[in-house]
Design a protein that fits this description.
Chain B: This is Sugar ABC transporter permease. Chain B: It is a multi-pass membrane protein. Chain B: It holds the Pfam family BPD_transp_1. Chain B: It comes from Azospirillum doebereinerae. The structure holds 2 protein chains of 2 kinds. By secondary structure, chain A is mainly alpha-helical. Chain A is built from 14 helices and no strands. The longest helix of chain A is centred in the first third of the chain and has 33 residues. Chain A is globular, with a radius of gyration of 24 Å. The mean pLDDT of chain A is 85. By secondary structure, chain B is mainly α. Chain B has a single domain, classed as MetI-like fold (Orthogonal Bundle), CATH 1.10.3720. Chain B has a two-stranded antiparallel sheet. In chain B, helix 1 runs antiparallel to helix 13, helix 8 packs across helix 10 and helix 12 packs antiparallel against helix 13. The longest helix of chain B is centred in the first third of the chain and has 32 residues. The chains are: A mainly alpha, B mainly alpha.
């Protein structure tokens, strides 16, 4: 009896949860399906879900017409580049905060976090003018610099919370054995912190990949990553639903898969350790 | 423990990060502040002159500012209400035992990883378009008149799109918090005859209070700066109907080339964001046990 009731309850919950899950995922699913339709089928009414003529021509078309691969590589270079540059600066800083905390460590951490709260429009004009005058507008290197700086506080903060879980005695022992600062960080700390560093890398690549204020304002045809490239579909080209869908699917798929692996890190990284 | 030697090393290793962030914060912000006191238009180079607080007077008395402020509050408030309430509901649901939990969880959090320009364009064209969109097809199928979302209810439509993007975040944080709830307390309350509503109000909600605050504050920071979604769907229109502060400053500076006015608007945006930031920093500071 009780068993049957539990099972019925579980069945109802399963149906409900799957309905909600599919509803949330539906816009993504619909985009992926539309990317395999012809333009005519993409706007057919009533729309067909699966019974249409499947084709890959939109993908070929998007690449041929607008050099999709260039923008994809821009996204890869900018998101990876800014994250690696951020790690290079953040690892030493997080090391000192976690293992040699001083009276002001806490204030420095909080201050770094506060820079993250600066609204981008507050500094849009100076950055735009500085970039214009130094030739950094529409360059990958310019976007790498800006994204490194806006994500640096999150990188430092995440590394700090991971480093703090590593016992300081191990580092001290290495120091006693005559390891210099560089050896201590490179050969003792980093190997132990690999999972934390990987998490930090993953979350920040995702954040940089999807960043859509600076990439839209500071890039044009040459350095535009996918965020800015897709925005160009807001003009009448957006009426080509199948091509919009193909471009969108390719832009979202890789990061969605990475994102699914980083659920836990997301909570930790974006709440700055306030929720675990 | 910490020797003088390691103290020096600490300062040295900290320096690059501190210097970079200090430069990033101070130099552009000081420039914005300076520009905000100038008559400075990119279309009229060489005519810059000091005009005191005139830019602020113009910006703060411009009807567009009040519209934008109202839109910003409506956007932030609307999305917060929907994501926090929806997030609690979803977190409670996903915490229950059912078949395929892992997969449903992946489906629910997926929208968070979709870049803002993609989600805005997909909603605008493929779902909300009054002629070719899926919602219009469904409406016609039911014998109803298709609704032109972005013309008839532009701000609500953007609230809907942004809610879809942020609901996964709220759900994930609240679910994480929910899973740290002591199950024995719930069971004990049930034994004592507390109903589902009582358990929710007196045990679950208080337990989630902190996570709810964190979700609210972090989302507010991001929601104050919503930009791409507006740029690719409505361009702030029709009229000023979907212009928020961020978009207003962008359009003053980079569409009308009014550097002075845009800078004054930027400083106003910084002040508004700081009011929220102070609360968030206190919250995180309290939880940071150093």
């Amino acid at each position: 009896m009780a068993r049957a009731a539990t099972n019925r309850r579980k069945l109802v919950l399963t149906l409900l949860a799957w309905t909600v899950g599919i509803a949330m995922f539906f816009p993504i699913l619909w985009t992926a399906l539309t990317s395999f339709k012809t333009e005519a089928e993409a706007i057919a009414s009533p729309p067909s879900f699966l019974a249409f003529h499947w084709t890959l021509e939109n993908y070929a078309e998007v690449q041929a017409r607008s050099d999709y691969f260039l923008h994809f590589m821009n996204s890869v270079v900018i998101s990876l580049g800014s994250t690696l540059a951020g790690l290079l600066v953040a690892v030493p800083a997080a090391w000192s905060m976690a293992f040699v905390p001083g009276r002001r460590t806490r204030d420095v951490l909080m201050w770094m976090l506060s820079t993250k709260m600066l609204p981008p429009v507050g500094v849009l004009i100076p950055i735009y003018l500085l970039f214009r005058d130094s030739g950094l507008l529409d360059s990958r290197i310019g976007l790498i610099i800006v994204l490194t700086l806006i994500n640096l506080p999150i990188i430092v903060w995440m590394l700090f919370t991971y480093f703090r879980e590593i016992p300081g005695e191990i580092l001290e022992a290495a120091r006693m054995d005559g390891a210099g600062l560089r050896e201590e960080i490179l050969f003792v700390l980093l190997p132990m912190a690999v999972p934390g560093i990987a998490s930090t890398l993953l979350l920040n690549v995702i954040l940089a990949w999807n960043e859509a204020f600076w990439t839209l304002n500071l890039s044009a045809s040459q350095s535009a990553p996918l965020t800015a490239f897709i925005a160009s579909y807001s003009s009448p080209e957006g009426l080509f639903y199948a091509k919009l869908s193909a471009a969108s699917t390719m832009a979202v798929a890789p990061i969605l898969i990475l994102g699914w692996f980083s659920q836990k890190q997301l909570v930790r990284g974006l709440t700055f350790g306030a929720v675990k | 423990m910490a020797t003088a030697h390691s103290r020096a090393a600490a300062r040295l290793t900290m320096a690059p990060a501190v210097v970079l962030l200090l430069g990033w914060m101070l130099i552009p912000l000081a420039m914005t502040l300076y520009f905000s006191f100038l008559r400075y238009n990119l279309l009229m180079p060489g005519t810059e002159e000091w005009i005191g607080t005139l830019n602020y007077q113009y910006f703060l008395t411009d009807p567009a500012f009040f519209t934008a402020l109202g839109n910003t509050l409506a956007l932030v408030g609307g999305v917060l209400a929907l994501t926090v309430c929806g997030g609690i509901g979803l977190a409670l649901l996903l915490d229950q035992p059912f078949w395929g939990r892992g997969i449903v969880r992946l489906l629910v959090i997926a929208p968070f990883f979709v870049m803002p320009t993609v989600s805005a364009l997909v909603w605008k064209n493929m779902l909300m378009n009054p002629v070719n969109g899926l919602f219009a097809a469904v409406a016609r199928g039911l014998g109803l008149q298709p609704f032109d979302f972005l013309s008839e209810a532009p701000l609500s439509s953007i609230v809907l799109i942004v809610t879809w993007q942020w609901l996964p975040f709220a759900t994930l944080i609240l679910l994480t918090a929910l899973q740290s709830l002591d199950r024995e307390r719930l069971e004990a309350a049930e034994m004592d005859g507390a109903g589902a509503v009582d358990r929710f109000v007196h045990i679950i909600l208080p337990h989630l209070a902190r996570a709810m605050t964190v979700v609210t504050l972090i989302q507010t920071i991001f929601l104050l700066s919503v930009f791409a979604e507006i740029l690719v769907t409505t361009n702030g229109g029709p009229g000023n109907a979907t212009t928020n502060i961020t978009y207003l400053v962008y359009s003053l500076s980079l569409l009308q080339f009014d550097v002075g006015g845009g800078s004054a608007g930027g400083i106003v945006a910084v002040v508004l964001a700081n009011i929220v930031a102070v609360f968030l920093m206190r919250m995180i500071g309290r939880n940071l046990d150093l």
